[in-house]
Write a structure and sequence with these properties.
Helix content is about 0%, strand content about 40%. With about 350 residues, the protein is mainly β. The protein folds into two domains: about 45-175, Immunoglobulin-like; about 190-340, Cupredoxins -  blue copper proteins (Immunoglobulin-like, Sandwich). The strands form four sheets. Strands 11-10-9-13-18-15-16 form a seven-stranded mixed beta sheet, with no helix packed on it. It has a five-stranded mixed beta sheet with strand order 12-20-19-14-17, with no helix packed on it. A hairpin with a 5-residue loop joins strand 1 (about 45-60) and strand 2. The protein is globular, with a radius of gyration of 20 Å. It binds copper (II) ion (CU). Copper (II) ion binds near residues 111, 155, 157 and 167.
Length: about 350
């Protein structure tokens, strides 16, 4: 057992050696960097994602204010980051694929990739404090999803801050049949919508990456959100994920699959504006019996796969509203909106 109170100076990853000084690295505590190659690494993954880091992603809100977000870049490449989006780019693969997530991080800060809901061995779990952080290095997370459904990935270094800063993206596992079937032997769908709902406390968004890691009180126990976003958009518009627009359109007789991710810290309640949906998968696990709902309550990190099958007479536009609810007081702090149009 290592001493949890031990203060650890971040050091360079493999090949580096020694205690890193390194500009901008600050004086972080509880940062344990990777020093060994990934065990059991195959040379033939089915899918590879190369992620970099961008600590300067401007997100312009409806009121004209710009909030700084952090995220992963999908183009991999540069250790210096750049070209990041909020949310980070979606990952998508089939059940049973062997996936490599190569994360490159410069010497300025530490980050990880945790594939939330996937169960790899611990070297690839990306939980900073339990395994290690990536700093000044490229690390390969090797993993293999075993159940189709909606997941997400996020950074797990100084997690409370880094997740709030936007370091996450959707992770979609298709069955062996591919997109269009929810899970093997399960329902098919014609159209997809991605609803990733989050709240933002802009007062957190000027903190350094290692804020609070040495025990100082930087206010991370107080989340007072002043912005509310769905799939990276304040109000309504197009997704920042290079995925179909979040305002979905579906024809009578077609099936719309909504992939809902509660990416905030406060609980949420999503309401379907009069439409009835059927939950088939919750948190990447197929329900024994599908459940019909007109709204869903969700807590941090939960995901739901919900299919809508509009019938003759359902034509019209339905507003999909998600309330963000204070976890102690029950007060509705804010609401995001998108829509489903049935024609
Ligand atoms: Cu991070």
């Amino acid at each position: 057992m290592f001493d949890l109170l031990e203060k650890y100076t971040p050091k360079m990853g493999r090949g580096g050696g020694g205690n890193g000084g390194g500009g901008g690295m600050g004086n972080a505590c509880y940062i344990y960097t990777d020093v060994t190659p990934t065990p059991g690494l195959t040379n033939n993954p089915d899918v590879t994602y190369n992620l970099g880091i961008d600590m300067s992603i401007p997100l312009t809100m409806d009121d004209g204010n710009t909030i700084n977000m952090w995220g992963f870049t999908g183009s991999g490449g540069g250790m210096m980051g750049g070209s990041g989006t909020f949310p980070s780019p979606a990952m998508r693969m089939r059940e049973g694929d062997i996936v490599h997530t190569n994360l490159s991080v410069n010497m300025m800060w530490a980050h990880t990739v945790h594939h939330h809901g996937i169960e790899p061995e611990y070297h690839s779990d990306g939980v900073g404090h339990i395994s290690f952080d990536v700093l000044g290095d490229t690390y390969t997370y090797q993993w293999r999803p075993s159940q189709a459904g909606t997941y997400f990935y996020h950074c797990h270094t100084n997690t409370v801050l880094h997740a709030e800063m936007g370091m996450y993206g959707a992770l979609i596992v298709d069955p062996p049949e591919g997109a269009g079937t929810l899970y093997s032997g399960g329902p098919t769908y014609d159209v997809e919508a991605f609803w990733v709902v989050d709240e933002i406390d802009s007062s957190w968004h000027t903190l350094p990456w290692d804020a609070g890691t040495c025990g100082g009180d930087v206010g991370l126990n107080e989340l007072n959100p002043d912005y509310f976003v769905i799939t990276g958009v304040d109000g309504s518009g197009n997704s920042a994920m290079n995925l179909p627009p979040i305002s979905a359109t579906v024809q009578v007789g077609q099936k719309l699959l909504a992939r809902y991710i509660c990416a905030g810290y406060h609980p949420q309640k999503i309401r379907f504006g009069g439409l009835t949906g059927t939950i088939h998968i919750s948190d990447g696990r197929v329900l024994p019996k599908p459940v019909q709902v007109t709204d869903v309550r969700a807590c941090s990190g939960e995901r739901y796969d919900i299919i809508f099958e509009p019938q003759e007479g359902d034509e019209g536009t339905y507003t999909i509203e998600t309330d963000i609810i204070h976890w102690v007081t029950g007060e509705v702090l804010g609401t995001t909106r998108t829509s489903i149009t049935v024609f």
